[in-house]
Design brief:
Blueprint (H helix, E strand, L loop, with lengths): L9 H14 L3 H10 L4 H10 L18 E5 L13 E4 L6 E4 L2 H7 L1 H8 L2 E5 H7 L15
Antiparallel strand pairs: 1-4, 2-3
Helix pairs in contact: 1-2, 4-5
């Protein structure tokens, strides 16, 4: 596979698509796919295995440390179609509870739906993700590291 095309305006595209789903009452389903899904361990492991542990941007081995790799959305115009409610999940690094979509049960019970989401993301090195988005540091608007 060739290098992934640069996507420097991703934040604007993401914002525009979020607006689309906000007005259609599908915001929660969109956030499950566009934001929350990347926190699901099974999603990361599925992509790692599917890609044979290779970064799809540079074709080198992914880092063994998941925090040094990143899930990259090829397309934000998609929603989670699994009707199960998100699960509460305790993030180990923080004391916050976050909700994550039911990707694990979706993979087992609705593989077609699961694969529709998986087809829209790839696993890449964090530094390759920065290259794709033409950014120098992986930080969000609040200065927090993005993984």
């Amino acid at each position: 596979m060739n290098k992934i095309q640069s996507f420097p305006n991703a934040q604007q595209v993401k914002s525009d698509i979020k607006d689309k789903y906000t007005t259609s009452d599908k915001l929660e389903e969109w956030e499950n796919f566009a934001i929350k899904m990347i926190k699901v361990y099974e999603v990361r492991e599925h992509k790692r295995e599917e890609q044979e542990r290779k970064c799809l941007h540079c074709q080198e081995d992914l880092h063994p440390d998941n925090r040094s790799n990143s899930l990259h959305h090829l397309d934000y115009d998609h929603i989670c179609k699994n009707k199960d409610r998100p699960h509460k999940y305790r993030v180990k690094e923080k004391n916050d509870d976050i909700e994550i979509p039911p990707c694990k049960s979706c993979k087992e019970e609705s593989p077609k739906l699961f694969n529709q989401c998986m087809d829209k993301i790839v696993y890449v090195h964090q530094e390759c993700h920065n290259v794709i988005h033409e950014i120098e540091e992986p930080v969000d608007k609040d200065g927090n590291l993005i993984f």
